[in-house]
Design goal:
heterodimer, A: Rossmann fold, globular, B: mainly alpha, 12 helices
Chain lengths: 277, 293
């Protein structure tokens, strides 16, 4: 760990700068170095470096507008579609530079799936929602294969039993929690390595939230998961690692139990105990 | 006390203003209906609706309205064949591809097309488009359905593109992001996600444009000819319902005669057609708003 961030937010004596939390045996899946992000002239992310581990759940926490969602969206280049957005620094996925010249954004996004804060099913049937990514990426050859992959994805997202008898109904007829699990199924169908989740449960009731959290726990066997949340209990419950963001900077990053019980930074402690933010 | 009275007077005035437009509409429908009923006392309604000869101004009178309806349909279909594909493609460009700068210029320019007086379009069809087409299509008559149809397509193009673009921009950004996140290209996102999501809004735009085309009068009165002909051939002179009404209104047909009443029957039919289309369009737009509010 190094402590070389130049200008510090007020009240901070030192900053833990990304790097590798001690004693992790899992390989690094995503490696971010000195990442700056700008919306036009405005700098939204400032010198972020961190390593995200394979088959672990990493939570991003921090107050609204701290840059956690923006940072998440740099990982699958979702910010590319925003006019005036600009990125400096590097993001490597399995050693491949995500922003390098000649990188195919389409195949990058196939590798890095995403679930959004507001569930966004397409105005198509339940089946077609999950089939869409498979179709456009030509990932299946036969109808039987397509049906099998759709079922597998719906099962993985723990929604199969609720929809198996009405796969041809409109996805918009599902409840909020079901829609969100459908969106997870849709993201899983193309078999990404990494799943980014941007406050996936913030619009859901407690029971639906619990189901999403259980799902996250199950999915980490097969996926590397990064989840943005403003709910600290949720971060504590589902994640192995937690990164705390403040004003576009990464303040502290480490094992979740440590962040919540013995943070190194006063600012982190104030935030997780609800004294600020 | 006096301020409350003033309030009541203002309320009454506002009500009267509203009443003027409602009353006018009611008056129009009343006159149309009365004259139409009088017309159908002399001409069987079935003959009117199924006859294929329209010669009310000739010695041997026939009152089959189908040639006029077909003329209207042929011109409108040509117009829609021009306006729907181009309008949709330009709406996709404006909504999904164009940078803000370009959209801010292109959209108003496109809407200027809608502000050109239709009489100008009519002369444009008659004196420019028809002669130009005749160089390529020697069989094309001087009056025909093709060139007013094409020009009318140009006229309703901004209606299609502007309303479709509004519908497409109202599709939540989250839907596009969902598609991009699955590895969709911009083209796939536009055609497979945005257009279907905006479908009812786009359909409403097309129907409204169709209703405009059916009711359009000046272009066809000038450039399509005045020969009611039961044909789908776009190269020969035809007459539309609107053009017929103009012909009789401007001519020396005495009021109160059966010939004169034909224009009310035709007008009623025209009104019912466009009214049905407008209702359908309004219903689709309401449904679209429901889906994404």
């Amino acid at each position: 760990m190094n402590t070389d961030l130049p200008t510090l937010p007020p009240g901070l004596s030192s900053l833990v700068r990304g790097g590798a939390p001690a004693a992790e045996t899992a390989p690094v899946k995503l490696d971010v170095r000195d990442l700056n992000f700008y919306y036009g002239e405005k700098r939204a992310l400032d010198g972020i470096s961190m390593a995200i581990y394979a088959h672990r759940v990493t939570a991003f926490i921090g107050p609204s507008g701290c840059g956690k969602s923006t940072f998440l969206r740099t990982l699958n280049r979702m910010n590319d579609i925003i006019p005036g957005a600009r990125v400096e620094g590097s993001v490597t996925i399995d050693g491949q530079d995500a922003y390098g010249p000649g990188v195919d954004v389409v195949s990058l996004r196939r590798q890095v799936g995403m679930v959004f804060q507001k569930s966004n099913p397409f105005p198509k049937s339940i089946f077609e929602n999950v089939a869409y990514g498979l179709r456009i990426n030509n990932l299946v050859q036969t109808k039987a294969e397509l049906a099998a992959r759709v079922e597998e994805s719906l099962r993985a997202a723990a929604i199969w039993d609720e929809v198996k008898d009405r796969l041809n109904d409109s996805a918009l007829a599902l409840s909020g929690g079901q829609q969100q699990r459908l969106c997870i199924a849709r993201a899983l169908a193309i078999r990404p390595d990494i799943l980014l989740m941007d406050e996936p449960a913030s619009a859901l009731d407690p029971i639906a939230t619990q189901r999403i959290e259980e799902l996250v726990y199950d999915l980490k066997k097969d996926y590397t998961i990064v989840i943005v949340t403003h709910n600290m209990q949720q971060a504590a419950r589902v994640s192995d690692y937690t990164a705390f963001f403040w004003l576009g900077r990464l303040v502290e990053y480490g094992r979740t139990d440590k962040i919540f019980t013995a943070p190194s930074e006063k600012l982190t402690e104030d935030y997780v105990t609800g004294r600020c933010g | 006390m006096s301020s409350r009275r003033a309030e009541r007077v203002i309320e009454g005035l506002l009500f009267l203003c509203a009443l003027v437009s409602v009353g006018t509409t009611a008056g129009i429908i009343l006159v149309l209906s009365a004259e139409t009923v009088a017309f159908f006392r002399e001409v069987p309604i079935l003959d009117f609706l199924t006859g294929t000869e329209w010669t009310p101004l000739f010695a041997t009178q026939r009152f089959g309205v189908l040639p006029l309806v077909l003329g209207t349909v042929v011109v409108s279909v040509i117009a829609l064949l021009v306006a729907v594909p181009t309008g949709l493609v330009s709406a996709i460009y404006l909504s999904e591809y164009a940078p803000d700068r370009v959209r801010r210029v292109v959209k108003p320019v496109l809407e200027i097309l809608a502000g050109v007086p239709t009489v100008v379009y009519g002369y444009f069809a008659l004196t420019f488009v028809t002669p130009t087409l005749q160089a390529w299509l020697p069989g094309l008559a001087g009056f025909n359905a093709l060139s007013p149809g094409l020009v009318m397509g140009l006229m309703i193009l901004p209606l299609v593109s502007s309303l479709s673009e509004d519908a497409m921009r109202a599709v939540p950004r989250g839907l596009r992001e969902g598609a991009y996140a699955l590895g969709a290209t911009r083209m796939q996102t536009s055609w497979q996600v945005v257009v279907p999501a905006a479908f009812s809004g786009i359909t409403a735009a097309v129907i409204l444009a169709a209703s405009r085309a059916i009711g359009e009068t000046m272009i066809v009165a000038i450039a399509a000819g005045q020969q009611p002909r039961f044909t789908a051939n776009p190269f020969v002179p035809i007459e539309t319902m609107t053009a017929y009404i103009v012909q009789v209104s401007l001519g020396d047909t005495p009021q109160g005669t059966l010939e004169y009443r034909t224009i009310f029957a035709v007008g009623m039919l025209l009104f019912l057609m466009t009214f049905a289309l407008n209702l359908l369009s309004g219903w689709l737009r309401a449904r679209f708003r429901e889906e994404y509010s």
